[in-house]
Design brief:
The structure holds two protein chains of two kinds. By secondary structure, chain A is mainly α. Chain A has a domain of about 230 residues. Chain A contains 15 helices and four strands. In chain A, the strands form two sheets. In chain A, strands 1-4 form a two-stranded antiparallel sheet. In chain A, strands 2-3 form a two-stranded antiparallel sheet. In chain A, strand 2 and strand 3 form a beta hairpin. In chain A, helix 4 runs parallel beside helix 6. Chain B has eleven helices and ten strands. In chain B, helix 3 runs parallel beside helix 6 and helix 5 crosses helix 6. In chain B, the strands form two sheets. In chain B, strands 6-7-8-3-9-10 form a six-stranded mixed β-sheet, sandwiched between helices. In chain B, strands 2-1-4-5 form a four-stranded antiparallel β-sheet, with helices on one face. Chain B is globular. Chain B folds into two domains: about 190 residues, P-loop containing nucleotide triphosphate hydrolases (Rossmann fold), CATH 3.40.50.300; about 80 residues, no CATH class. Classes of the chains: A mainly alpha, B alpha/beta. Chains A and B meet through helix 1, helix 8, helix 9 and helix 10 of A and helix 2, helix 3, helix 4 and helix 5 of B. The complex binds adenosine-5'-triphosphate and magnesium ion.
Chain lengths: ~350, ~280
């Protein structure tokens, strides 16, 4: 606990960022996001866009699992719903990009609401299996509702076009994805400054007394499912504009595990945790791939032999995190900040 | 102080509670067997009895947590027996639990704010933007909670501490704070001083008296600490094996032969207890 933050008013204490240090970090992050495209590399721009899409989706799952305590193994299926919605509306009716993205979120939210219904009766592992089952059913729909989803071959997605500008490449899409990502993450942070977010946490921490202080489990559990799916839907819609094709294979069940791992590795129940988790889970495999490539001059077969090892290292890193930092990267970050705030004194 | 925050706390009028013929059964166990209980507005009424007498079961039935087999619960004459637990919060029924039921992952301040949940109305869209109603409500809530609850119960030094790391006595106090934030008209406390030392107990007893005095709420409490019960209550109701065996002023109850017998048969004599040898209630 930092004591040196005497507040002039409650307004400051209730602010989005409570300390000047936080404001500075946020400013640096924003500057970084604005300057990042200067690197000029298509590869890095692609990765940046993918990372931010995953940040949106992870934040959504974090609201449901990290904050409300409802474990979902079907998150990727809601991304798929969003991706198909965008592909369908943009492809069929040529509707505006932003409208398509809102529709993607809304359709996913509606389905998420329905998938959340079992949470009123079952909990924990049983609920996780129910969400997995729901995602299998959605997969079946994607595969067989051919007139809408294109069946096995899926749908092609037109280039996102805003005000006549074609966002055909990652360096242009960046300017669509980045602001949406920032706004949605800040909105999630806002949510937990209010009664709605507190109600979610209350349900996670003890659902019996939540009810006794007047929180409707029915209303808020389903709301959490809907919000979480909305985030996934928007992320899936952006994903569709990035990859330009959606098929039943685009969001396998493993992707749901990917997002759950991102929430846990990053730090469940903190907004920065969702960001860290998504960045880590997206970039580490790329980083390991690059490392293998870097070894090629010395070991010409490195990339062949290291490919499987890469997955093992990635898995070990995740396990290592769970063992040594069960509170996630967000907790490491907190300690680092504390260390520098008190530097040169050790704690 | 800004005009948004009137200086005096909003003081809801004290409520009257009438319970009639309440019965509750767990399988073969009759936890409650037709009990009557009348709590006068503005009074401090104690519900006592040996372990397993049915006190907590009565609380759970009154707060809508268990569905009684027979009986009615009336708040200010209005039958609320069929009202779901979460809607009773809004009616002004607030309670604490024998086993502390705080939200462990949250700070003291957030736990207390949660108490006001049912009285706030901001919706999810305002919340995302932290605009309009959401912002206004949160600011008012913070100011009110600080003034009426945190200052009042002297919790200033721990407001940003996660409740999970607080000592037991303070957790009990935070639970009282959360119940107060609910703007109760009747406050139900299940063993508020169990597991506390003398000093903490006196502190809590004073807080309960102050709450009644300054907030003007009705207090119904379950307690094993007979010293405290005899000191602060206006009215005492005694349960044994799910039945009401006596009711009256502390003095009347203390000298009631049935009560003496019930206590001698279990955890102690209320007369002896009143002199400071309180039978130790369960901590959990
Ligand atoms: N959930 C339950 N399931 C089954 N039996 C229960 C349950 N809750 C209470 N009982 C039983 O009902 C009876 C009354 O219990 P209750 O908890 O109301 O007693 P109490 O007066 O609060 O006791 P204490 O002073 O120990 O807290 C006991 O015999 C108890 O075993
Ligand atoms: Mg009890």
């Amino acid at each position: 606990m930092r004591v040196g933050t005497a507040k002039e008013s409650y307004a400051a204490d209730e602010g989005l960022f409570k300390t000047d240090t936080q404001k500075v970090w946020f400013g640096l992050l924003m500057a970084g996001l604005l300057l990042f495209p200067l690197n000029g590399s298509n590869y890095w721009m692609f990765l940046a866009v993918l990372v931010m899409i995953n940040v949106i989706s992870t934040t959504g799952l974090n609201i449901l699992t990290g904050y409300t305590g409802q474990v979902s193994l079907g998150h990727a299926a809601f991304m798929a719903v969003g991706a198909y919605t965008v592909a369908f509306f943009d492809g069929r009716f040529d509707t505006p990009v932003l409208l398509n993205l809102v529709l993607a979120g809304a359709v996913a939210a509606g389905i998420g609401y329905l998938v959340g219904l079992p949470s009123l009766r079952i909990k924990g592992l049983y609920l996780a299996i129910a969400t997995l089952a729901a995602s299998v059913i959605l997969g079946f729909v994607f595969l067989n509702w051919t007139p809408v989803t294109g069946g096995l071959r899926g749908l092609n997605v037109p280039t996102a076009t805003i005000a006549g500008i074609e966002l055909a490449t990652p360096d242009r899409l960046y300017w669509l994805v980045m602001p949406i990502c920032v706004v949605m993450v800040l909105a999630a942070k806002n949510l937990f400054r209010t009664r709605v977010g507190r109600a979610f946490i209350a349900i996670r921490d003890r659902d019996i007394s939540a009810e006794i202080i007047g929180i409707s489990l029915f209303k808020y559990k389903l709301m959490s499912f809907a919000i979480s799916s909305f985030y996934a839907g928007v992320a899936g819609g952006l994903w569709a504009y990035l990859f330009r094709v959606v098929t039943p294979e685009s969001f396998p069940a493993l992707a749901s595990i990917f997002f759950l791992a991102a929430v846990i590795v990053g730090g469940a129940g903190t907004i920065v945790g969702g960001i860290f988790g998504a960045v880590f889970m997206t970039l580490i495999p790329e980083f390991l791939k690059l490392s293998a490539t870097a070894l090629v001059p010395w070991f010409p077969d490195a990339s062949i032999y290291l490919a499987p090892v890469r997955n093992i290292i990635f898995g070990l890193l995740i396990i290592g995190f769970l063992i040594f930092e069960p509170m996630g990267l967000a907790e490491m970050w907190r300690r680092t900040r504390r260390y520098f705030a008190l530097w040169p004194f050790r704690t | 102080m800004s005009p948004l925050h009137p200086a005096a706390p909003v003081r809801p009028p004290a409520a009257r509670l009438d319970v009639e013929n309440l019965s509750l059964q767990f399988g073969g166990v009759k936890a409650l067997d037709g009990i009557d209980l009348n709590v006068a507005p503005g009074s401090i009424t104690a519900l006592i009895g040996p372990n397993g007498a049915g006190k907590t079961s009565a609380f759970n039935s009154i707060s809508g947590f268990y569905k009684p087999k027979t009986g009615t619960v009336r708040l200010d004459g209005e039958d609320i027996t069929a009202v779901p637990a979460r809607d009773r919060a809004k009616l002004g029924l607030a309670r604490t639990f024998q086993n502390i039921a705080l939200f462990r992952g949250m700070t003291v301040l957030d736990n207390i704010k949660l108490g006001r949940h049912a009285h706030l109305t901001a919706g999810v869209f305002d919340a995302f933007l932290y605009w309009g109603k959401a912002k206004r409500e949160e600011m008012e809530l913070r100011a009110e909670v600080e003034r009426d609850v945190i200052d009042f119960l002297e919790l200033d030094h721990i407001r940003n501490v996660p409740v999970a790391i607080l000592p037991y006595g303070l957790q009990k106090k935070v639970e009282l704070a959360r119940a107060l934030a609910m703007r109760p008209r009747i406050l139900m406390l299940d063993e508020p001083v169990a597991g506390m030392n003398r000093e903490e107990t006196e502190d809590m007893a004073r807080a309960i008296l102050d709450v009644r005095e300054e907030w003007g709420v009705t207090v119904l409490l379950v307690e094993h600490d007979m010293g405290m019960v005899m000191d602060i209550s206006d009215h005492v109701c005694v349960l044994n094996f799910g039945r009401r065996i006596a009711a009256g002023t502390p003095e009347e109850v203390r000298n009631n032969p049935d009560v003496i017998k019930a206590y001698l048969g279990s955890s102690g004599d209320p007369r002896r207890a009143a002199e400071g040898h309180a039978p130790v209630g369960e901590v959990a």
